[in-house]
Amino acid sequence: RTNASFLARCAEHPDFVAAHIDTGFIGRHLDDLVTTPVPEIAPADVAALDLAAPLKGPKVWSPRDGATGFRINAPAVSQVAVRLDGEPVLARFGGFDAVPPRTGKGDEAVVLFAAGEAFELSRFRLGEAGGAAASDGKIRAPMPGRISRLSARLGQTVQAGEALAVLEAMKMEHTLAAPFDGEVVDVLVAEGDQVIESAVLVRVAAKAAAETQA
């Protein structure tokens, strides 16, 4: 990372261009100078994720790979969820020649340079923020959104992978599942609730722990 974008914003500022500068210039315009713009994500940037971590084994071509869907009087629009500096964003690509690839499951990230800034671009994997650590069993929201369905009930016995809630965010539905076999010991939301990223929605206790608490 460098301060190239900061220097560029200084040089482009109207007061700097008009030579209205002194030792207090940066302090007076700090908010304008340190604001980091969110870059547009191009299909090539998402494609780089696949190049960074190619899928294992030969890839079998499918007609679905190039299917853009049918639109009346409008070009097709593709979208894919990624993380930009750790924050979930929805990259949208319009037009028939700008269809992003389906990304694999690698942990690698690529660096996206835009306007003098460096951003880390990585895959968004369902459950990475919505899963739960074995130590606490807390099911967290992977991003801000609305609880569209809630199947978890207090005292319910669940199995690993069983759906507990569905979060509607960025025009997609994200199913949040139990991380292990156990019992639902806390339900902190209701259907229709708006939640922030990383909010605890449900807490599951491992079977042995649940029996001890009982």
Task: Please provide a written account of the structure.
The chain is of the alpha+beta class. It is 18% helix and 32% strand. It has six helices and twelve strands. It has helices at residues 4-12, 14-17, 25-28, 30-34, 43-52, 207-213; strands at residues 77-84, 87-94, 109-114, 117-123, 138-140, 145-150, 157-158, 163-169, 172-177, 182-187, 194-195, 200-206. The strands form three sheets. It has a four-stranded antiparallel sheet with strand order 2-1-4-3, with helices on one face. Strands 5-12-10-7 form a four-stranded antiparallel sheet. A hairpin with a 2-residue loop joins strand 1 (77-84) and strand 2 (87-94). It is elongated and about 70 Å long. The chain starts with a helix and ends with a helix. Mean pLDDT is 74; it is low at 55-61, 96-100, 102-106 and 126-134.
Task: Furnish the topology, listing elements before pairings.
Layout: H1 4-12, H2 14-17, H3 25-28, H4 30-34, H5 43-52, E1 77-84, E2 87-94, E3 109-114, E4 117-123, E5 138-140, E6 145-150, E7 157-158, E8 163-169, E9 172-177, E10 182-187, E11 194-195, E12 200-206, H6 207-213
Antiparallel strand pairs: 1-2, 1-4, 3-4, 5-12, 6-8, 6-11, 7-10, 8-9, 10-12
Summarize this structure briefly.
It contains six helices and twelve strands.
